[in-house]
Amino acid sequence: MVESQRRLPRQIRSDNKLKYREAMHVNAPQSTSFCYESAALLSKAIQQEEARCPRTLLLQLIDLAPLPLPGSGFTLERWRALANIAGYDLSCAKFYESHADALAILRELGHSHLVSDKDIWAVWCAEPPNRKVHISAPALPGSMVQIDGTKAWCSGASLVDRALLSAWDTNNKPCLVAADMSQAEIRVTNDGWNAVGMAATASVDVEFNAAIGTVVGTSGSYVARPGFHHGAAGIAACWYGAAQSIASHVHQRLKQQSKNEHATAHLGAMDVVLSQAACLLRAAAAEIDKNPEDSCELVVRRTRLAVESAAETVLYRTPRALGAGPMCKDRHLAQQLADLPVFIRQSHAERDQAAHGHRLLHLEEERLWTL
After folding, report:
1. What pTM did the predictor assign?
2. Alpha-carbon distance 327 to 315, whole Å?
3. CATH 1.10.3720.10 fits 227-367, yes or no
């Protein structure tokens, strides 16, 4: 719990949590069986639709399993559903997580009235220095503005209906804008995406030429809200789901083979890192549900870095455990091994480690690593 919360009377802290949960309590499951029931539905949907249009599959998933929002008391159930989808198809998980994140953002910033049951949303907030989008006025919540510029890394641009995108207002302050992708003034290009891994996400450049959008929240509120970090941990749940699936494949293969001590050593190492990552994901979910109005930044950063490390360990050890055969003959495994290295680069590697380390330097030593 952060210092500011410690100074609040207990009843006020409880009231704040209750109000936050009421605001975020949309599509919350009625029991913890949600994740297991939805997992079966999601698995069935993916297996039935995997050869069809990605949009059809995404709409079916959205209809089958509307996710509880972060901080609603069911954060772990949300992450389990994301991990389950990622274990089957990381590109699909990318689309689904982005849609679910958009709904959470709109709810948290007071713009849930923009949501329609029939729309697929995306969140495009990468800010490379050579690709900037600008709006025609100061960022006033709910105002209609003109959008101009080229947005990079727009996953699923050709299949979504609406998007939340970061932009810069006339005061050169960061803001968030919602745009209807059906406008003629928006052009989805074929530029900026030549990936092999995560190829299906088609994260291309999108051009905005006097398009119209709605300002969501105040300047800087997208990053300042607690859900910014809560959502970042949801991305880690996707990484975890894919790594878990790859490790499960190794486990199944080795059970069918004669003893190979080197291969089983790799399996043992995977078990250790995945178990550690799972524990941190569970702890982070509990912390977010306990303190939904707090960003839980320290716990989230630690968890993301641990899951990233676990995923990298699985990616390193799987080819050594199995050899080239399954990588060349098992399409699903080969796709996972191509997709996951691309997806985990949403982490900024050593930059994120450094940011986490700097945060630790501001903590008292007795608060760290105590059993």
Report:
1. 0.88
2. 12
3. no
